[in-house]
Amino acid sequence: MMNNKELDDILNDPIFTLNDTEKELFHLPEAIKQGKIKKQKAEEIGKRKPCENFEDYAALFVQVHKDLKEGRRRLIGFKEDNLQEKVFFIADGVMGYVDQLDVDNRQIKDRVRKDGRSRVIYEDGTESNILFRTIGKNITKNGYIVTALNDGNELASLSGEQVTENDEAQGWIYILRSKSEDERIASVENLYKIGFTTTPVEQRISNAKNESTYLMADVEVINTYKVYNINVQKLEYLLHLFFAVARFHVKVGDAVPEEWFVVPLPIIRQAIARFVDGSIVNYRYNVELEALEEIVFDKNERVRTKKTDIQGLEVLTLTVKQPHFDFIYHGEQDIESRTLRATTINKLTRLDKATGKRYIRQPNVLRLYCGYSKDRDVMLVEVKKTEFEQPDFIMYHLGRVLEYDVKKTTAIRLGISEENV
Q: How far is it, in rounded angstroms, from Cα 283 to Cα 286?
């Protein structure tokens, strides 16, 4: 053990003696001191503490988790406009509730950005007075915004965005249950109709018992979704395609309605949400398990048919948007049209150099590209006939799809089976 004399000798060693210049190295400038103090205060303000009135919120968290499991709410990525008062979110696996939000535009470094304090209640019984931008960073890093409740027959937006007064609804997607007493129908569990209408649903189904599409019986409205910023007809068409393996076939009078499916209700709700946020391309419906089955695949993988011999045929290359690409593939659209303009005249017509006259090109095949990306989808489609309407309108009447080369995600969306390629 060291005695006092030995300790004094060590402490009096010149190595422990600092001159004034050396002492300055350990001096903290006032500006840094103040910055450190401010940061400590901010951390203290934003620190969590027990929520004294948590009993007022506890049941809300239980209900929101239940809503998520039943498909009446869903999780979406963070966007500033979606983080508002009375909104739930999840960050690092913990659900929070924005009880109060005091936000305005503030100068943050060289930018004007939205920020301010908020009172957030957490499901673990704590609360914090946290900055708006900090919540956003936490959600962006590892979390989600929880959407508003889509409760039964109430109308809700499926756009994933906060709806403003400038947004216009395109229509309603609905889910119905039949009240038919026909044993062929009444005995089937999980039988639902998925459809769309541009008029209010109650008005659309007012004559259900006299229409074969409703199985000649009254129906019960299970869900209606008011749709903003989405092509409703396309959404309905893709839903029907997705659940085609579970389509219910029954002859009613002289018709066989095609919009009835034997699928559990929560699964239909989940599928609608996944179509809206685009994640449905990663799933297919497993009819045996009655569940959405995740598909694992290489996103760069493609599905191709064998090359078609088009030697000697006239081929015209056009670019189309995705909905038209899908509809043409499934035979739902049999005409592709173009308008003659100064920018397209050389492509859509040919010049007879001998006479100086121009003639409309009469292609045998259309090569249709979907969009403009480098890895875009493409297919070859037979042209049955080309018509020209004065003064500048050309219509290509389409036949069979001869060949396609598409991304795996597109093949899933279109319902292409690789067994048939």
A: 9
% of the chain surpassing 70 pLDDT: 78
Distance between CA atoms of residues 229 and 226, nearest Å: 10
pTM over cut 0.70: no
The DSSP call for residue 172 is: E
225-246: per-residue pLDDT in tens? 877 666 677 778 888 888 989 9
Round to whole Å and give the CA distance between 131 and 45.
Answer: 9
Residues near 256 by beta carbon (within 8 Å), at least 6 away in sequence: 249, 250
Contacts of 397 (CB under 8 A, 6+ apart): 334, 335, 383, 384, 385, 386, 387
Which amino acid type is present at position 360?
I
Secondary structure (3-state) at 67:
helix
- Give residue-wise pLDDT tens across range 138-157: 888 778 888 887 543 333 34
- Burial degree of 346 (CB within 10 A; 0-12, 13-18, 19+): exposed
Q: Look up residue 264 and give its two tokens.
A: 């559990």
